[in-house]
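[Discussion] Sanity-checking designs against the backbone

I'm trying to build intuition for which residues belong where. Below is a structure token string of 472 positions. I'd appreciate it if someone posts a full sequence so I can compare it with mine line by line.
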């Protein structure tokens, strides 16, 4: 590698709490990536070991994968290039092959971005608290000296395709062969689900399932010509909703760019909330664990999921554990508790059988299994898991976030309300009729409101009252 003379590298703009993300050619370049690959090997002590490297469909991902591989090989690691992969394919490979790995993706971010998600052997997450800061510091050192020192023996670089093994593994976890015939519209958003859906749910690599798949935007294209690959934004679901109705489909599935999140649309074109999906999958995983002799299976849910989730878990004989928002927290608690499954309001779904990692495809397969083993439509099935009314996440742009939360606290303090501060501030009516959470963004001047109530008028009343106080 060569470094511009007198240039000082500071990677703090692209190194986030859980991953690396930046603008291609500015805060993330091949030179930077090569140094990160070398630092990854040193910090994790992987000289002489194996590291897995892949990437998504973004135009810069192949170049970055090769640069990371070069840096890793220079420091003595043997690299297996996985080529085009979804993020949950990386987790599968890190788990099944018991090796550390990295994939190049910026998930749902726009086309000009790319980034790196990294994992230790066994798909254990790497965050700022578990090695990411050390990787950043060492990469900066290599960049600023302009030299990556060569290990005694340079590692070898080979190519290893895991798509078929990944697909077979998921099919072993959820047997869909006995499902009733289903018509499924899948919006891949020009992201990696365009590769994984035909492999897992179609007949591209494995025997056909009783599914008629209608593809939307399966062409891998990191410029995202049709819509951003971010199904969390309602406007990005419109094409899928229209296609489900037009084709008379039973269900619609939308994946984000790196296909680790999955959103579900019913046969009427209406979204099924991630909380309802969490409840649906939790019920299946509790039953399966109990059948295997587990007395009280544990289900993890973050504090923004519907209170229907812990109620359902308790009813089904499981134990619900509430956590902060964020995958590093969820994965840590999954491991501590030996939890069988975890779900977030943002459509991240975690499975013990998937090394506690998140996978949108496995969650989708559970929903297809639940739908396919009964005769009713998804709208009816989903209603069982959505007894409450939610506001969704509402952002207020405000500088004095603490002051806004204090105004809300003062206004509600005379009422019969419990307040906890696990993640932001959660206000819960003691009669159980409503709750809301206010969370300040760590990176933007936003205060985020999520509210839920027993019915629409109560939810709207609470939502409007809180927003008036916040925005006063």
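Best answer:
Here's mine. Compare freely.
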């Amino acid at each position: 590698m060569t470094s511009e003379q007198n240039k000082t590298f500071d990677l703090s703009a692209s190194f986030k709490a859980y991953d690396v993300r930046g603008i291609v050619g500015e805060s993330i370049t091949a030179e930077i990536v090569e140094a990160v690959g070398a630092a990854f090997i040193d910090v994790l002590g992987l000289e002489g070991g194996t590291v897995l490297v892949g990437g998504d469909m973004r135009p810069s991902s192949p170049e970055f994968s090769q640069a990371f591989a070069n840096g890793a090989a220079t420091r003595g690691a043997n690299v297996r290039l996985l080529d085009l992969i979804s993020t949950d394919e990386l987790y599968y490979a890190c788990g099944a092959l018991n090796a550390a790995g990295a994939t190049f993706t910026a998930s749902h971010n726009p086309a000009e971005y790319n980034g790196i998600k990294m994992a230790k052997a066994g798909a254990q997450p790497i965050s700022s608290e578990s090695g990411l800061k050390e990787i950043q510091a060492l990469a900066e050192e290599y960049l600023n000296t302009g030299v990556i020192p060569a290990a005694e023996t340079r590692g070898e670089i080979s190519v290893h395709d895991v798509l078929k093994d990944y697909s077979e593994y998921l099919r072993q976890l959820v047997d869909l062969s006995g499902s009733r015939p289903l018509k499924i519209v899948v919006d891949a958003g020009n992201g990696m689900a365009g590769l994984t859906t035909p492999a897992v749910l179609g007949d591209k690599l494995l025997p056909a399932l009783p599914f008629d798949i209608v593809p939307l935007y399966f062409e891998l294209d990191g410029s995202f010509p049709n819509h951003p690959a971010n199904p969390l934004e309602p406007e990005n679901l419109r094409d899928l909703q229209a296609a489900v109705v037009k084709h008379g489909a039973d269900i619609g599935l939308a994946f984000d760019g790196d296909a680790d999140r999955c959103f579900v649309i019913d046969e009427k074109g209406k979204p099924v909330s991630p909380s309802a999906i969490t409840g649906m999958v939790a019920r299946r995983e509790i039953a399966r664990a109990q059948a295997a002799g587990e007395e009280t299976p544990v289900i993890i849910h973050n504090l923004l999921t519907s209170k229907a989730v812990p109620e359902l878990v308790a009813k089904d004989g499981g134990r619900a554990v509430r956590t902060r928002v964020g995958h590093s927290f969820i994965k840590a608690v999954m491991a501590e508790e030996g939890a069988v499954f975890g779900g977030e309001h943002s459509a991240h779904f975690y499975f013990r059988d998937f090394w506690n990692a998140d996978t949108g495809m496995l969650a989708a397969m559970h929903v297809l299994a639940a739908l396919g083993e009964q005769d009713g439509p998804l709208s009816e099935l989903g209603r069982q898991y959505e007894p409450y009314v939610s506001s969704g996440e509402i952002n207020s742009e405000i500088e004095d976030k603490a002051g806004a939360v204090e105004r809300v606290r003062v206004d509600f303090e005379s009422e019969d309300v419990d307040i906890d501060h696990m993640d932001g501030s959660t206000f819960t009516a003691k009669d159980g009729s409503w709750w809301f959470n206010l969370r300040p963004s760590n990176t933007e001047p936003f205060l985020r409101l999520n509210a839920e109530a027993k019915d629409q008028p109560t939810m709207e009343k609470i939502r409007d009252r809180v927003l008036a106080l916040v925005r006063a």
